[in-house]
Write a structure and sequence with these properties.
Blueprint lengths: L4 H27 L28 E4 L5 E8 L2 E3 L2 E5 L4 E7 L4 E4 L6 E4 L5 E5 L5 E6 L12 E7 L1 H27 L1
Parallel strand pairs: 2-5, 4-10
Antiparallel strand pairs: 1-2, 2-3, 5-8, 6-7, 9-10
The structure holds dinuclear copper ion.
Amino acid sequence: MHIDPLEKKWIQISLGMVSLFMGIIMIDALFHGVNAPSNVETIDSRKIHLSEEFAEENLGVQVAENGDITVRMVAGRYAFFPKHITLPAETKVTFRWVSMDVLHGVHMPMTNMSTMIVPGYVSQIESSFPRPGEYPMLCNEYCGLGHDHMWSKALVIEKEEWEAMRAKQAAALNITATADEESNNE
Ligand code: CUA
């Protein structure tokens, strides 16, 4: 089959471009952890506040006994709840997002955090923050008149600082718990 040399050149260029883009996608996926969210887990959006996992007292940053950090967040017109969270830098964090009303999205610039939050589903993403600083969480799916005001903040601090903060909070909780016990005993 005869192929015009100029046409051949353009076929090569276009194949080269496709390979380049595929390569970039593969490097991002395999080495930078940038993946399409694929967690399929359903939840009844009307009963989120009654569910155990996303009840108000379980929202925000939770540390399991083995040290794993999970952040549970609820998106609703027009904010992410809780409004402020504090996280350690250079640590793996698992985010679990649910919507209590309509379709939202969340985007945290300079991180791999970008997912739709579809009512009825739990969106789960693993992330980590290499540098301390203030990271905004922005809604990136049009969800109503207040859409462009829909954002919250994550404060990322040094790991040691974060651990010290946790220890202090735990100690404060212990003090109130003992104080309560004592007043009950009186
Ligand atoms: Cu929520 Cu836009």
